[in-house]
Amino acid sequence: MDRFNSLIAVLSLLLSVCVFPFFASAQLRQNYYANVCPNVETIVRNAVAQKIQQTFVTVPATIRLFFHDCFVQGCDASVIIASSGTNTAEKDHPDNLSLAGDGFDTVIKAKAAVDANPSCRNKVSCADILAMATRDVIAMSGGPSYAVELGRLDGLSSTASSVNGKLPQATFNLDQLNALFGANGLTQTDMIALSAAHTVGFSHCDKFSNRIYNFSRQNPVDPTLNRDYAAQLQTMCPTNVDPRTAVGFDPNTPNTFDNVYFQNLQQGKGLLTSDQVLFTDPRSKSTVDTWAGNSPAFLAAFVRAITKMGRIGIKTGGNGNIRQDCGLLPDIRKSDLETAIAYQMQSANFGRKSEIKSDLSSGPNKAYEWQEDVKQNSSMT
Ligand code: HEM
């Protein structure tokens, strides 16, 4: 196959991953590791339980990490990759800087526990470990326990630029929220259910300070905020507050994953604009009202929504692998590079020699992509 055809093949693959991320779910299934690592779910659960005993922050930190992973390049643990000398990774994009370290630590500890078992070593992806850990922290904080689908591979790249425009902002209105979740194959109902993850965890003051100080000319305080709650927020977040100060999302049951989130919205106690709008916009209000009074209905909707979220843009086959270190893209062995260079030289690509050299010097991300490209070409000829 010539380069043009292989380019078309790569482009169609990219198109299918980008445009129809939710169709990529066919390969996920429960008990995916039954043959290679039958105890994987118990191993992960024990590691997560131990981590929660150290700090409850594990719960919100892990849930949010999974969300930010899935919405950027799919659920492929690309958010966990550390930046390198030549590459700024997803985790260093401004929208990800407030991800709490305990989420990353949960995955790293669970991965170490899995890999301590000889038959499981290097068989379970970091992306699946994050999906399992998320299920576990939700169940261990009073939320639903659901069967988690597995079979995701880890992504081969992670760039800060890929985060642009992919994550919702605290100031979003309903149309903006629906547009972003819709682009990931999620409905308004899914979006409302998933927003209830704000039943646990914290927000830094800067994410909502506009609502309590300079909302509009007539109303310095957002009129959709409960007045007493707004006054409490002003006390906790004075105008020149330390930027590290954070406030709990749920003032009533901060450490329980429950439908009190929706009851708070009914009382004007949604912390972010994007939370409160779910109650103030008539198009989403009835769902909030229903789930505020019906915990089982909310929990069932949440399980459906997070299962759908876990299918976004999954990597299978050649577009993923199993990372040994969840925070590092695999290094390419020198011998692989030499073989790849030799191949490139032979195959009418002489003119690209200098480009190849510069690719190799531009870090593991680029080199890995390039190596995959070469592999694909070699198998096609
Ligand atoms: C609907 C649109 C959403 C917006 C605008 C939004 C925005 C935010 C913001 C601004 C914070 C506070 C970050 C900080 O200051 O540290 C936050 C925290 C959090 N978000 Fe969201 N989020 C949304 C949806 C979700 C979803 C779908 C999930 C998970 C399913 C989620 C899970 C969390 C959790 C658990 C925290 C607390 C993190 C912690 O305490 O470490 N969020 N979110």
TrEMBL record:
<feature type="disulfide bond">
    <location>
        <begin position="70"/>
        <end position="75"/>
    </location>
</feature>
<feature type="region of interest" description="Disordered">
    <location>
        <begin position="354"/>
        <end position="381"/>
    </location>
</feature>
<feature type="binding site">
    <location>
        <position position="72"/>
    </location>
    <ligand>
        <name>Ca(2+) 1</name>
    </ligand>
</feature>
<dbReference type="InterPro" id="IPR019793">
    <property type="entry name" value="Peroxidases_heam-ligand_BS"/>
</dbReference>
<feature type="binding site">
    <location>
        <position position="76"/>
    </location>
    <ligand>
        <name>Ca(2+) 1</name>
    </ligand>
</feature>
<feature type="site" description="Transition state stabilizer">
    <location>
        <position position="64"/>
    </location>
</feature>
<feature type="binding site">
    <location>
        <position position="78"/>
    </location>
    <ligand>
        <name>Ca(2+) 1</name>
    </ligand>
</feature>
<feature type="binding site">
    <location>
        <position position="250"/>
    </location>
    <ligand>
        <name>Ca(2+) 2</name>
    </ligand>
</feature>
<feature type="active site" description="Proton acceptor">
    <location>
        <position position="68"/>
    </location>
</feature>
<dbReference type="GO" id="GO:0006979">
    <property type="term" value="P:response to oxidative stress"/>
</dbReference>
<keyword id="KW-0560">Oxidoreductase</keyword>
<keyword id="KW-0408">Iron</keyword>
<dbReference type="InterPro" id="IPR033905">
    <property type="entry name" value="Secretory_peroxidase"/>
</dbReference>
<dbReference type="GO" id="GO:0046872">
    <property type="term" value="F:metal ion binding"/>
</dbReference>
<keyword id="KW-0106">Calcium</keyword>
<dbReference type="InterPro" id="IPR002016">
    <property type="entry name" value="Haem_peroxidase"/>
</dbReference>
<feature type="binding site">
    <location>
        <position position="258"/>
    </location>
    <ligand>
        <name>Ca(2+) 2</name>
    </ligand>
</feature>
<feature type="signal peptide">
    <location>
        <begin position="1"/>
        <end position="26"/>
    </location>
</feature>
<dbReference type="GO" id="GO:0042744">
    <property type="term" value="P:hydrogen peroxide catabolic process"/>
</dbReference>
<feature type="binding site">
    <location>
        <position position="253"/>
    </location>
    <ligand>
        <name>Ca(2+) 2</name>
    </ligand>
</feature>
<dbReference type="GO" id="GO:0020037">
    <property type="term" value="F:heme binding"/>
</dbReference>
<keyword id="KW-1015">Disulfide bond</keyword>
<comment type="similarity">
    <text>Belongs to the peroxidase family. Ascorbate peroxidase subfamily.</text>
</comment>
<feature type="binding site">
    <location>
        <position position="74"/>
    </location>
    <ligand>
        <name>Ca(2+) 1</name>
    </ligand>
</feature>
<feature type="binding site">
    <location>
        <position position="168"/>
    </location>
    <ligand>
        <name>substrate</name>
    </ligand>
</feature>
<dbReference type="Pfam" id="PF00141">
    <property type="entry name" value="peroxidase"/>
</dbReference>
<keyword id="KW-0732">Signal</keyword>
<dbReference type="InterPro" id="IPR019794">
    <property type="entry name" value="Peroxidases_AS"/>
</dbReference>
<protein>
    <recommendedName>
        <fullName>Peroxidase</fullName>
        <ecNumber>1.11.1.7</ecNumber>
    </recommendedName>
</protein>
<dbReference type="InterPro" id="IPR000823">
    <property type="entry name" value="Peroxidase_pln"/>
</dbReference>
<comment type="function">
    <text>Removal of H(2)O(2), oxidation of toxic reductants, biosynthesis and degradation of lignin, suberization, auxin catabolism, response to environmental stresses such as wounding, pathogen attack and oxidative stress. These functions might be dependent on each isozyme/isoform in each plant tissue.</text>
</comment>
<keyword id="KW-0479">Metal-binding</keyword>
<feature type="binding site">
    <location>
        <position position="90"/>
    </location>
    <ligand>
        <name>Ca(2+) 1</name>
    </ligand>
</feature>
<dbReference type="InterPro" id="IPR010255">
    <property type="entry name" value="Haem_peroxidase_sf"/>
</dbReference>
<keyword id="KW-0376">Hydrogen peroxide</keyword>
<dbReference type="GO" id="GO:0005576">
    <property type="term" value="C:extracellular region"/>
</dbReference>
<keyword id="KW-0349">Heme</keyword>
<comment type="similarity">
    <text>Belongs to the peroxidase family. Classical plant (class III) peroxidase subfamily.</text>
</comment>
<keyword id="KW-0964">Secreted</keyword>
<feature type="binding site">
    <location>
        <position position="199"/>
    </location>
    <ligand>
        <name>Ca(2+) 2</name>
    </ligand>
</feature>
<keyword id="KW-0575">Peroxidase</keyword>
<feature type="binding site" description="axial binding residue">
    <location>
        <position position="198"/>
    </location>
    <ligand>
        <name>heme b</name>
    </ligand>
</feature>
